[in-house]
Amino acid sequence: MASSSTAQLVFNAFDRILTYQGVQKQLNDDFWDTKISPIIRPLWDSDKDRLELFVYREDGTYLIQRSKYRRDHKTKTSKWTSYEFDPSGIEEYSVSNFYDKLREQFFEFKDISEAQYEQAVRRKIEEANILSWDKILLVRMFLLGDCDWTQLGDNGLTDEKKAMWLAYRKWIRDNPKTNAQKQDAETAYDVIFPITPDEYLKRKETGVSESALERYGQQGNDKDYLDSDYHFWKLSANSLSYFAQKMSVYLVLTTITRDNIGEGTFGRIDINNYRSKINSAQPPYQFSSEEERKKYFGADYNGGEMITNETVEEKGQAWLDDLISRIEAGEV
After folding, report:
1. What pTM was computed for the model?
2. Distances (CA, A) of 263 to 91, 155, 276
C-alpha cells in the first residue's frame, strides 16, 4: 500500500531489528525466541513463507514483504522469492493488532536492554573505583540538581536558609577544582565539597559531646556557614558507589536521547514536528547496494551506533571515561 506518510514502526524480520519512532533495537536470540516468534508464527511467518519486512505508518497504511520458497519444476531448482503481501480482506489477519503487539514488545525489550546497559555502566564505574575530573564534574552537577528546588519561589525556606543555599550553590559553581587549602587541587581526590545547609544546621542543633569538645573543639559549630574546614568534605573512592547509580542513569539517558533518538520525536512533545531527510518521506526499504542506501540517506549516514551492555563490557573503562568527557563537552 503506497503512502507518503512517515513510518511509525519498522520490523525487519530478516535482520531481527525492531524500530519504533526512529529508535532502533537489535533483538537478541532469547527475546526473539520467547517474545517475537509466538507473535509472528505460524500466521505471519512460516518455514516456507517468511516475513521479511513489516512497516506500519502514521496514517494506518502499511507495507508487508514476505519471501516464499518456490520450486521451479523446469529447472528442478528452488529459491526464495520476495513479494509484497496485502492481507486486507483476509479475516484471520489483523494488521493493526499485529502492530500493537510489536509495539508492546519494542517497549518491553527497550526496558530490558536499557536496564542491562545501565547495570553494565554502573558496574564499570564501581569496578574502576577511580576518581577522575570527569566524575567530579558529574558529582557537582548532581549536587546542584538535588537542590534546584531551593531556587523556586514557593520553596518555603526562611530568608536565612535561602541565603545559605545560595552560598552552597555558588561555592560549588565557583570552585570546581578547589582543595582544602583553597587552592587548585592537583588530583580529583583533593577536591572538596561543602556540606549542605541542612547538615550545618543539624550539627548546630545537636551540638558536640563533651569528650569531642575537649579533644576537637566546636568543629565549626561556632562559625558561620562555610567559614570552617569542618564544613567541607572530600569524595573518596569508596563513596563513588553512592553516585554510581546516578552516573549510570545519567549516561544511559544521555546516550539514549542523544545518540539513538537523534532528531526523532520519541520521548518528547514537539510543537511542530521536524522532518529530516531521513524521516520526511517514505524511503525505499530495500536497496540493491550500500552505495544506493547512502545515496538516499546521505554519504555520512551509517545507521547509528547500537550501544549495549556488551559494548560497555568490551570497550571498558577507557571508553566510559571518554563517554563522560564527550557528554560534558557537548560532543555526544
Report:
1. 0.44
2. 38, 36, 7
